[in-house]
């Protein structure tokens, strides 16, 4: 009848525990509910007691092969089946497979007359029959307090309940008993007096019109447990508790770098992009291109074949995809391939804790490598500053533990950073600031890296150009007096170009002038030299003529002397005239 | 005690009604309470029910599945199946007055009888 295949080998001294089947609760209780003992789940109406109990049974039946008995005092089988169908539990099928036994105990006060001594043996018999017929390991009594309303004789009831819990313990089944919360007490009728091994309190409170569900383990005999209030969520996949506050600062730090999807931005970030698992804040006023930067990052991740999860708190999935098409980012194929998933909802839809849980849930299920929270500042409107900060801390911790690279586009209202901005920024590893630069009657987008932990990064302002080719970063004009962007930058660059060209033309002109002057000078030199040459020529001519003349004269004189029989004087005359000729040359 | 003890009795003194009474007594084993309850029931039937009646005793220890049908959670429980509406009386039926109230059997015109 009983199958013992689920019995886990554990240290003898330790309390044996059984998985509650509720994600998160096992972490808080370090293993689950006490095995073979009753646990009490109490809370106000509508806080999810029945669902929690039901999930305990169904998960036990489906995942741990522990059949379970659900004894209901408030709702009949039909209603229960319908109610939990919304969580995807098919009680009919489970009942048919003998994994779940539903038993509705109808107690109608008006039909009952007490006439003397009685006991609740009937209930014991039914329970025993139910447990034995399917070999149940888990039992839920929902809500046994219904008996208090129906039976006037409380003395009998109390002694019988005490006997019932004793009997259940002897039977070795793990039981959840649900109870309404009383005024100042855990339960309205003091059931905690009988069921003292484990008491879990569920709470549902509304703060500023937003409801948050919380769970607290009030008591757990013989076991350590988380004592905080943990938010929990009832979603279409059931009950989940998030033991976020128990996280420490011991997440791994990867040294792998991943591209930001914008080439120039990677260069600014030490040439390689972000560290995997880091958190990136992209802050800027409206319309500075936060979503574009995020989408480029998502696109790059999907190109690498990674999974990306995009939480949109402002725009719908289709709107983002349409808008990103305009800058050449086609995200649709990634969605179709199942690499990219959008999760769009209004931040005011539910409280921060719920958001946190939703995100937690989605990340756990989809297992993305990249997550975008666009814009994270919209969550701030949901809670107070402290709450937001604590929520973000937990969120970032969670992302880091999961080694998810998270990008947080953040909307700032003024150019100067606000309080909440400061609070967020200190949590982030990388902070990219996008600014509107207004000048010359136009608005341009500037980008710079405010900080980037653990890597060298550019300190330069870059201008973001969004075109249908994608996102481009260009150098701004950083002149001696001002920083220019957009058409002012183009104008300035143009002006500079013109100036350079002008100067070059002027130089060329002067060069030509000098060249011309040089040729004129050269010509003049040639003319002068020609003149000189002519003069020298003339002189030489004269000298030659003179020499000839002298020779002729000498000859004639000689002849004459010979005629007249003169002495040797003409030799010295000849020598002098020879010297004259050499000088002229 | 037999699982099902049917005791049919004709009330000879005052056969005024055509209706048939169908009573079921649910017990869990042969305890003091069960025995007392059955004895009390028999006595009350003889004294107060004028119509035909039948008493069926169901021992839940032997037939636990039967508990569900009449939504039994306590024992002993006396269920008046007929005439309708169904009435349930808890306990060993030692308080005759309350049993009569429960069975809707208080003598007409004589509230103190």
Overall pLDDT of chain B: 76
User: What is the residue-mean pLDDT of chain A, rounded to a whole number?
Assistant: 82
Helix content class of chain A = 40-55%
Strand content of chain A: 15-25%
Shape verdict of chain B = globular
Spatial strand order of the main sheet of chain B: 2-1-3-4
Cα distance, first to last residue of chain A? Answer: 144 Å
- What is the β-strand count of chain B? 4
Low-confidence stretches of chain A: 1-11
Shape, per Cα inertia axes of chain A: rod-shaped
Percent of residues in beta strands of chain B: 15-25%
Structural class of chain B: alpha+beta
> Distance between termini of chain B?
33 Å
CATH class bucket of chain B: Alpha Beta
Give the low-confidence spans of chain B.
1-16
Number of helices of chain A: 16
Q: Give the proportion of residues in helices of chain B.
A: 10-25%
| Chain pair forming the biggest interface | A-B, 25 and 34 residues
Tally of contiguous helical segments of chain B: 3
Number of domains of chain A: 3
CATH superfamily of the largest domain in chain A: P-loop containing nucleotide triphosphate hydrolases
Structure description:
The complex is a heterodimer of chains A (585) and B (113). Chain A is α/β, with parallel strands linked by helices and 585 residues long. Chain A has 3 domains: 230 residues, Rossmann fold; 219 residues, P-loop containing nucleotide triphosphate hydrolases (Rossmann fold, 3-Layer(aba) Sandwich); 95 residues. Chain A has 16 helices and 25 strands. The termini of chain A are far apart. The relative contact order of chain A is 0.08. Chain B is α+β, with helices and mostly antiparallel strands. Chain B has one domain: Glutaredoxin (3-Layer(aba) Sandwich). Helices cover 25% and strands 23% of the residues of chain B. Chain B contains 3 helices and 4 strands. In chain B, strands 2-1-3-4 form a 4-stranded mixed sheet, covered by helices on one side. In chain B, a hairpin with a 4-residue loop joins β3 and β4. The longest helix of chain B has 17 residues. Chain B is globular, with a radius of gyration of 14 Å. Chain B starts with 19 loop residues before the first strand and ends in an 11-residue tail after the last helix. Chains A and B meet through β6 and α5 of A and α1, β4 and α3 of B. β6 of chain A pairs parallel with β4 of chain B.
